[in-house]
Structure to design on (302 residues):
């Protein structure tokens, strides 16, 4: 008996969805950062074992912020439910153990839509390795059961891999029988250009302060692997919504942009398995976060 199915990973921002998917795949497919709302697109990761193949759909964090881009992000997350066989809701257990008043506020937008999707639900209470006061888990789990009585709760640490095998075993229980749909060595349906742009964006998140990363986007303008055999020549544009942010991205004498490019180039080279020449440009595009056409062109809301 072979199983094949799709699992939607949903939850509030910064709950650890991308970290869990990367943990299962054994390598990074979705970018991660300490900042919330890092994931903007629905990203797939493919886990293949001897008797199963699981397609994980990593989705943008569920939140209640306004604006066209945020609406597109929410649409992407909810659309993943419709194409899934099971749902894993990721919650930041360490956050709610320390600040229980946030629990109901952040779970409320999730319960009804997930229930209406009619899929089996597993709730991964993540980051348990960060909970110093272990007895604080008891009231947290009790309150979760009250808010979501039909769900099954599994405490995990996606970063450390603690109890993730148990969670995966329960995921497999809900998958239908079926043959694999992808080659066993394929780990994502995302094209390499998209993954390269995501790597650049991740380096932006790590290098920029406060809210600045949320007004930036990355587009691969050109990709050439023919001119110089064994080397990919990649040109990418970093868009920013405000003129005064351009200088901050570039940095003094180009130092920040150079570091972003160096760090991104190394990781893109690992992804491709060849040398990479990466050129980065910074352009101002005012109001891009409210431009539906541009958002769609960037693959948001799909």
């Amino acid at each position: 008996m072979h199983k094949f199915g799709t699992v939607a990973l949903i939850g509030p921002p910064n709950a650890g969805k991308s970290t869990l998917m990367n943990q299962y795949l054994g390598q990074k497919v979705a970018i991660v950062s300490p900042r919330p709302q890092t994931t903007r697109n629905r990203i797939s990761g493919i886990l293949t074992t001897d008797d199963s193949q699981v397609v994980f759909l990593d989705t943008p964090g569920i939140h209640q912020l306004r604006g066209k881009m945020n609406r597109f992000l929410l649409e992407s997350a909810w659309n993943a439910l419709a194409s899934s066989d099971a749902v894993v809701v990721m919650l930041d257990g360490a956050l709610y153990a320390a600040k229980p008043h946030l629990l109901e506020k952040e779970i409320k937008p999730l319960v009804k839509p997930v229930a209406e999707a009619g899929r089996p639900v597993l709730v991964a209470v993540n980051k348990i390795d960060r909970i110093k006061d272990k007895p604080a888990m008891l009231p947290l789990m009790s309150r979760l059961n009250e808010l979501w009585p039909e769900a099954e709760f599994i405490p995990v640490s996606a970063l450390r891999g603690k109890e993730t095998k148990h969670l995966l075993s329960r995921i497999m229980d809900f998958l239908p029988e079926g043959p694999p749909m992808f080659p066993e060595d394929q780990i994502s349906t995302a094209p390499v250009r998209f993954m390269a742009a995501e790597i650049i964006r991740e380096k932006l998140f790590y290098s920029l302060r406060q809210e600045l990363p949320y007004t930036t986007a990355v587009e691969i303008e050109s990709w050439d692997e023919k001119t110089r055999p064994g080397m990919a020549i990649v040109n990418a544009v970093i868009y920013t919504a405000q003129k005064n942010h351009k200088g901050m991205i570039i940095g003094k004498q180009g130092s920040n942009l150079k570091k972003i490019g160096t760090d991104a180039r190394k990781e893109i080279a690992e992804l491709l398995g060849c040398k990479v020449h990466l050129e980065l440009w910074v352009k101002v595009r005012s109001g891009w976060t409210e431009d539906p056409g541009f958002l769609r062109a960037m693959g948001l809301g799909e």
User: Anything to note?
Assistant: The mean pLDDT is 86. The first helix runs from residue 17 to 25. The beta strands are 3-10, 43-48, 52-58, 86-92, 121-126, 152-155, 216-224, 231-240, 275-284.
